[in-house]
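User: Run a structure prediction on this.
Assistant: Running it now.
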Amino acid sequence: MADTFKQDDDETSVMFRRWRNKQHEIFAIIPSEEWDRRGSVTVFDGCHCGGNYQACIRGSRPATPEEYAPLKRSMESAPYGYRVRVIKRRGTR
């Protein structure tokens, strides 16, 4: 039996950012997904990794909708299946 893709039922709050020192490198911070017990957040740029929230914010600026659109589409499709809710900062609803 083949696996079928299913998108998440719940929304995941995501902040899309662009590194200041690297042209065209867009990444997503997923504040609700803790990476480790030190308080690192999950960072997604095509794969998941951990990142220091403050360092990520200091070294980047908010990405525009045009800049983050391809990454958002990738996150919402197979195999990830996020239902993305774009936020500007951690702790916002």
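Residues 65-76 form the longest helix (12 residues).
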